[in-house]
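R.M. (postdoc): so does anyone remember the format we settled on? I'll just put the structure tokens first.
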């Protein structure tokens, strides 16, 4: 009979990391241990996906240059591929059908993935779904701050539309897109039937 493998891990954090962990725990009203466990679990899922799918990491400056020189057709192609990749990663992490019923689970993980705790495209990002039961209308709002440029704002709005149209099967009936060199404010009014 083999001995059961111990699944307890112990490690030390620097004073700076511990201070940040305490601040996050206070904001989220959770224990430091739970926040650390979630962060490690999230990183393992992300790293496992990256390693087993032959992904590579590039710097933001190189990525910015790439989309700056891309024409409309190329931007559409890259944004479609990025939407596919994000959807694959999210399906792996959330393990629920990718539909409006699980939209909040997906959006919270997309925020972690793209935000400061993930690949750091955004210093702050929020994705919110509100439903008007009487009118059977859905409104999705995306607010985000980044340090790239206006072309990135435009590019990322294409990724969001691809995710909504293809993976959540949402028909967008009205769209608001207000972007600057470091700010995105996107609003989509829609229904869930294609």
């Amino acid at each position: 009979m083999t001995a059961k493998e111990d699944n307890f891990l112990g490690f030390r954090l620097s004073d700076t990391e511990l201070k940040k962990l305490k601040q996050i725990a206070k904001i989220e009203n959770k224990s430091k241990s739970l926040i650390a466990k979630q962060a490690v679990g999230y990183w393992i899922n992300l790293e496992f996906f990256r390693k087993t799918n032959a992904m590579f990491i590039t710097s933001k400056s190189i990525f910015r240059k790439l989309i700056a020189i891309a024409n409309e057709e190329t931007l559409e192609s890259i944004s479609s591929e990025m939407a596919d990749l994000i959807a694959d990663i999210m399906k792996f992490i959330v393990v629920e059908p990718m539909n409006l019923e699980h939209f909040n689970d997906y959006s919270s993980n997309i925020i972690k993935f793209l935000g400061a705790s993930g690949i750091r495209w955004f210093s702050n990002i929020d994705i919110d779904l509100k439903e008007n039961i009487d009118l059977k209308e859905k409104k999705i709002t995306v607010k985000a701050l980044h340090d790239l440029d206006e072309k990135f704002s435009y590019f990322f709005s294409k990724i969001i539309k691809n995710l909504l149209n293809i993976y959540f099967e949402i028909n967008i009936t009205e769209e608001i897109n207000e972007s600057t060199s470091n700010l995105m404010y996107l609003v989509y009014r829609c229904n869930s039937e294609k």
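R.M.: ...and that's the designed sequence above, right after the tokens. Also worth knowing: The first strand starts at residue 124 and ends at 132. The mean pLDDT is 86.
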